[in-house]
């Protein structure tokens, strides 16, 4: 699909943006009052990060924001989704707000607005302050209350300018990778016992919604969950049951309480797994009303579909790396040999984005607010060629096909590319490149890739179209 054809699919108010997270781009890990997060602690342990890198520098966006903003402006980015570092804004995870952090984020938000770029803020993108984790992290209800304090402080500091607020990013991933399998920070390996942290994350979301509205902030409020279409590897009862369990944990554990106001129900296949702790994390009780506050939008992160088989994986494979804990999980992810894969070995199946959207619409009906695709993208082993350019045609194809599906859906108001500049990709370090701008990890030089020029061409084509009476989604 040509950039012009894709541009013609996009409504004038369709938001075409980019997404990032503080721990992956900011660097300046020990500057201006910031204290360690769980990712600093996790990365300091040998063997946790594939290439031995840490969040200490990453892309150095803390010092190079003006350079990145200039590239965004040139590409005509509609919106920039970024997260606030809890450890930078509120260094102990509680207590007074750090004025130097407020000054930094003021500069980011004001710079985006001056460039005509919509600021979209994620409050929690996985970097819990280390002092809170030392006290139990998301296994303690008190962390949800501390998060509400953080949300209130952020709302008071920036609530007059931020267009959209996202409370939590992918809480499912926090539970699975961080607390169950140990492949992400904080590195706990509690398997299905990690589900007892779900109620605290859900409560944190609801309390943050209340805190932001109490300020009140001018922007819209939502949450971001990652979803994947799930299919059994075969027609056997065991594979179907295993797929049901995975679908429960990945797709419904958080979405059902938030959107339906009720506990997610255990699937049939979970009954035999109760000895491993896979039981409902405790009834939500009176917290349900707080957890299910009406939202202004629902953030959907989509990357790939999942094929599940019964039985443990002897290699301990997960989408984010291998871990010993996965060898004790009684189901495994199977490959999709019929599809090409990304550098992360994730299957490329654009039509599954449509399947995911259909599933959300069917399950949640009128309880589902407007959808923003808050993340989508692909990693490839990009290199600078002899002529100084980076040809990432595979990423251009990936994005064009996925964005076309999103833009054609009336329920979807935007698509955010993960990510703008190659970032520090969690446990993979710098071994996986998702950016539309190449990062030299030694010099930190930025080089726009073919996908960057493609994005700019799409936006230029859109700007030549009749914008109609309204060209942006306005905050409520």
TrEMBL record:
<dbReference type="InterPro" id="IPR001360">
    <property type="entry name" value="Glyco_hydro_1"/>
</dbReference>
<dbReference type="GO" id="GO:0005829">
    <property type="term" value="C:cytosol"/>
</dbReference>
<dbReference type="GO" id="GO:0016052">
    <property type="term" value="P:carbohydrate catabolic process"/>
</dbReference>
<dbReference type="GO" id="GO:0008422">
    <property type="term" value="F:beta-glucosidase activity"/>
</dbReference>
<dbReference type="Pfam" id="PF00232">
    <property type="entry name" value="Glyco_hydro_1"/>
</dbReference>
<protein>
    <submittedName>
        <fullName>Beta-glucosidase</fullName>
    </submittedName>
</protein>
<comment type="similarity">
    <text>Belongs to the glycosyl hydrolase 1 family.</text>
</comment>
<keyword id="KW-0326">Glycosidase</keyword>
<keyword id="KW-0378">Hydrolase</keyword>
<dbReference type="InterPro" id="IPR017853">
    <property type="entry name" value="GH"/>
</dbReference>
């Amino acid at each position: 699909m040509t950039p012009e054809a894709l541009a013609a699919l996009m409504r004038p108010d369709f938001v075409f943006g980019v997404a990032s997270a503080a721990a992956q781009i900011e660097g300046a890990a020990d500057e201006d009052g910031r204290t360690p997060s769980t990712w600093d602690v996790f990365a300091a342990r040998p063997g946790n990060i594939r290439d031995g890198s840490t969040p200490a520098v990453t892309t150095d966006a803390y010092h190079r924001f003006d350079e990145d903003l200039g590239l965004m402006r040139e590409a005509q980015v509609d919106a920039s989704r970024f997260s606030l570092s809890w450890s930078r804004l509120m260094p102990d995870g509680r207590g007074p707000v750090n004025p130097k952090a407020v000054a930094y984020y003021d500069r980011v938000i004001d710079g985006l607005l001056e460039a005509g770029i919509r600021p979209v803020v994620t409050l929690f993108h996985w970097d819990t302050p280390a002092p809170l984790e030392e006290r139990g992290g998301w296994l303690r209800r008190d962390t949800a209350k501390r998060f509400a304090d953080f949300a209130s402080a952020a709302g008071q500091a920036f609530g007059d300018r931020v267009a959209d607020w996202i409370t939590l990013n992918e809480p499912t991933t926090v539970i699975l990778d961080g607390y169950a399998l140990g492949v992400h920070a904080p590195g706990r390996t509690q398997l299905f016992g990690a589900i007892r942290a779900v109620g605290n994350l859900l409560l944190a979301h609801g309390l943050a919604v209340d805190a932001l509205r109490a300020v009140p902030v001018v922007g819209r409020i939502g949450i971001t969950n990652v979803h994947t279409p799930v299919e059994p590897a075969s027609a056997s009862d065991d594979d179907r049951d295993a797929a049901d369990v995975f679908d429960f944990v990945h797709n419904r554990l958080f979405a059902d309480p938030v959107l339906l106001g009720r506990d997610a129900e255990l699937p049939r296949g979970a009954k035999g797994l109760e000895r491993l702790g896979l039981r409902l994390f405790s009834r939500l009780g009176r917290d349900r009303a707080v957890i299910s506050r009406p939202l202004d939008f629902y953030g959907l992160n989509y990357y790939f579909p999942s094929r599940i088989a019964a039985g443990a994986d002897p290699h301990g494979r997960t989408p984010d790396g291998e871990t010993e804990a996965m060898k004790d999980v009684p189901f495994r992810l199977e490959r999709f040999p019929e599809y090409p894969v990304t550098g992360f070995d994730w299957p490329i199946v654009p039509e599954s984005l449509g399947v995911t959207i259909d599933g959300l619409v069917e399950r949640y009906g009128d309880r589902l607010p407007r959808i923003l695709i808050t993340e989508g993208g692909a990693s490839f082993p990009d290199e600078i060629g002899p002529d100084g350019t980076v040809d990432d045609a595979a990423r251009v194809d990936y994005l064009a096909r996925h964005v076309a599906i999103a833009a054609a859906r009336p329920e979807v108001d935007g698509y955010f590319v993960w990510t703008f500049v190659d970032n520090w990709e969690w446990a993979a370090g710098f071994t996986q490149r998702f950016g539309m701008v190449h990062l030299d990890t030694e010099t930190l030089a930025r080089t726009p890739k073919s996908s960057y020029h493609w994005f700019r061409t799409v936006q230029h084509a859109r700007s030549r179209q009749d914008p109609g009476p309204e060209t942006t989604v306005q905050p409520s």
